[in-house]
From TrEMBL, chain A:
InterPro entries: Ntn_hydrolases_N (IPR029055), Proteasome_alpha (IPR050115), Proteasome_alpha-type (IPR023332), Proteasome_asu_N (IPR000426), Proteasome_sua/b (IPR001353). This is Proteasome subunit alpha type. It holds the Pfam family Proteasome_A_N. Keywords: Coiled coil, Cytoplasm, Nucleus, Proteasome. Residues 222-249 form a coiled coil. It comes from Equus caballus (Horse). The 26S proteasome consists of a 20S proteasome core and two 19S regulatory subunits. GO terms for biological process: meiotic cell cycle; proteasome-mediated ubiquitin-dependent protein catabolic process; regulation of meiosis I. One of its GO terms (cellular component) is proteasome core complex, alpha-subunit complex. The keyword rRNA-binding does not apply.
From TrEMBL, chain B:
This is Proteasome subunit beta. PANTHER family: METALLOPROTEASE TLDD (PTHR32194), PROTEASOME SUBUNIT BETA (PTHR32194:SF15). Gene3D superfamilies: Glutamine Phosphoribosylpyrophosphate, subunit 1, domain 1 (3.60.20.10). GO terms for cellular component: cytosol; nucleus; proteasome core complex, beta-subunit complex. The keyword Protease applies. The active site is at T50. Keywords: Cytoplasm, Hydrolase, Nucleus, Protease, Proteasome, Threonine protease, Zymogen. Belongs to the peptidase T1B family. Pfam families: Proteasome. One of its GO terms (biological process) is proteasome-mediated ubiquitin-dependent protein catabolic process. Its main location: cytoplasm. Component of the proteasome complex. The 26S proteasome consists of a 20S proteasome core and two 19S regulatory subunits. The 20S proteasome core is composed of 28 subunits that are arranged in four stacked rings, resulting in a barrel-shaped structure. The two end rings are each formed by seven alpha subunits, and the two central rings are each formed by seven beta subunits. The catalytic chamber with the active sites is on the inside of the barrel. Incorporated instead of PSMB5 and PSMB8.
Amino acid sequence: MASRYDRAITVFSPDGHLFQVEYAQEAVKKGSTAVGIRGTDIVVLGVEKKSVAKLQDERTVRKICALDDHVCMAFAGLTADARAVVNRARVECQSHKLTVEDPVTVEYITRFIAALKQKYTQSNGRRPFGISALIVGFDDDGIPRLYQTDPSGTYHAWKANAIGRSAKTVREFLEKNYTEDAIANDNEAVKLAIRALLEVVQSGGKNIQLAIIRRNQPLKMFSAKEIELQVTEIEKEKEEAEKKKSKKIA
Amino acid sequence: MALQDVCKWQAPDTQGLSPHLPQAGGWAVPRGCDPQTFLQIHGPRLAHGTTTLAFRFRHGVIAAADTRSSCGNYVACPASRKVIPVHQHLLGTTSGTSADCATWYRVLQRELRLRALREGQLPSVASAAKLLSAMMSHYRGLDLCVATALCGWDRSGPALFYVYSDGTRLQGDIFSVGSGSPYAYGVLDRGYRYDMTTQEAYALARCAVAHATHRDAYSGGSVDLFHVRESGWEYVSRNDAWVLYSELQKLPEPEKEEEEEASEAHPEPATPTELAKVENSPRGLEPGDSRMPAETETL
């Protein structure tokens, strides 16, 4: 039944599905994990780095992209599609500044990206974008924001979310561990993001890429060393927690 | 994508400027004729003469204007409204061609309203000025004449921008526009301080326009006074220009505490309360009155 309704994007199936959009969401589930966390004074984006071939230059693999000085996004899914979306979003950020003098709000650029994705689900001859995006940043009013878009063109605001391969596991981890204490200060928020990724990423800190935006400051990518520092801290805390537990039992 | 290309169909751009504005250059002119030269030779002689001013200070933005609409040597209307509300927190003083100003303000109102619905908040005064100047710059060279000061209160406090139809857009504290502006600038530059009280500001604005109407032939009638506060704009008063000017002349010389030169003392900073009592409008309006019924729609 599905095969008759999944060729053209603009055709609904009898039970109300747009199969091409759902297949796009499957493509997203194959992409590497990305996690976003909204703290009180900081927003954090972390992504799982796929292992690169021996001869490949690692630095050219970018999954976290700045859209403007105060907004950035991470994606999960088809890299080429993401590149097209990021380019359009960057142009829109500058157009907005040119027309209206103000930098875009995070919600505005999210709405733009979502509208772009929706347009591609309702045109003939095109296929949807195979990416979900996590868009983070600070608005002029100083409030941190995190939004998630998906291939159908819907968007929602989140306190913390994950997309990609093991999104479900990471989201469950976040639901358990996203507390007021966990985001009490910037460092804690960063550690929460790393801990969430460590749940699903093999071989630890080497395969994690991390970026933060602090209020009124531009995007900062963490170097491998800084990530290693955080990972060792986390492992130390884990050991101490284990010791305490075993002491209690003993 | 492929089918669209074959059919040569363009999807409407809903995110850009609202459609239905005529394309620049899409004017009905005889074939083979350049619109600019055509207008220069055959276009209507549009006349502009006015005095409008606006300045921003601690308690908001003051906008004042005369009310004479002149057409060459003929006073087309002695009681016109030259300060146009755009929305609750934005006014524009208009100078140049009345028809152009009125039309472009309606277009600006529409743009701001659409953006407010999309974004959930009204754009800032800077944005409004940018939008207006960008829209008008498409029509450059086609004899549009709109010289306006946008006065408003937004998230950054009192804001004032000057926009001209060739695309000029300037931010400033004091602007005066029109044929009577040199006279008004003289008075304004003498008496302006950012920390004025509201009554001092009202007096300064009235004085500046009154002096301009005295000397400029194309300005006269009455003096309209508007005030944009944090809570929105307010129509303060309309006073007859000649009555205002003669009352100003009657005021005694004030005593100067700081300045050495006693000549040519400007009356209003020292005696704001006297001035307020002395003015009386032919319609019995008290200055500093509460809001006049708004005749144009508020957004």
